UniProtKB/TrEMBL annotation:
One of its GO terms (biological process) is phosphorelay signal transduction system. Residues 8-136 form the Response regulatory domain. This is Response regulator. The modification 4-aspartylphosphate is found at residue 69. SUPFAM superfamilies: CheY-like. It comes from the Bacteria.
């Protein structure tokens, strides 16, 4: 019997509908993943730095992958990305930006901050679910 480690994904997304789609996709495709969802950039940083309600590493384990929306209130996804990629303790965690923005300026800024992958969310539900499954499988196998 193998002792397979449960993979952890931190998903920072302020749109509840998009958060639900990601949750559904992961349940369908990768049932053995622990999905930790937060609804803004400040909460993502609190999770990563184990502050506030995320102090206990048993409850808030280090993620193997970060899925990050760009446009969130208070602390933007770009700000979170820049902080993660500058921190030697966090920079090895792959960060995939999932955004509705196809703006080249946003893509360029994310690349400058060190994003591992930048994807525009499809409007079609099934395409979105398929995309989430593919990127999570690809990044969690590395």
């Amino acid at each position: 019997m193998t002792n397979k480690k449960t993979r952890v994904i931190l998903h920072a997304e302020d749109d509840p509908a998009h958060a639900t789609i990601v949750e559904i996709a992961l349940q369908r495709i990768l049932g053995d993943v622990l999905l930790q969802q937060v609804d803004d950039g400040r909460a993502a940083l609190d999770y990563l730095y184990r502050r506030g309600p995320f102090k206990n590493p048993a409850v808030s384990p280090r993620p193997d992958l970060i899925l990050l929306d760009l446009r969130m209130p208070d602390v933007s996804g770009l700000e979170v990305l820049a902080i993660v990629k500058r921190d030697p303790e966090l920079q090895a965690i792959p960060v995939v930006v999932l955004t509705t923005s196809s703006n080249e300026k946003d893509r360029s800024e994310a690349r400058a901050c060190g994003v591992d992958e930048y994807l525009t969310k499809p409007v079609d539900f099934n395409m979105f679910v398929h995309m989430i499954g593919e990127i999570c499988v690809a990044w969690l196998q590395r």
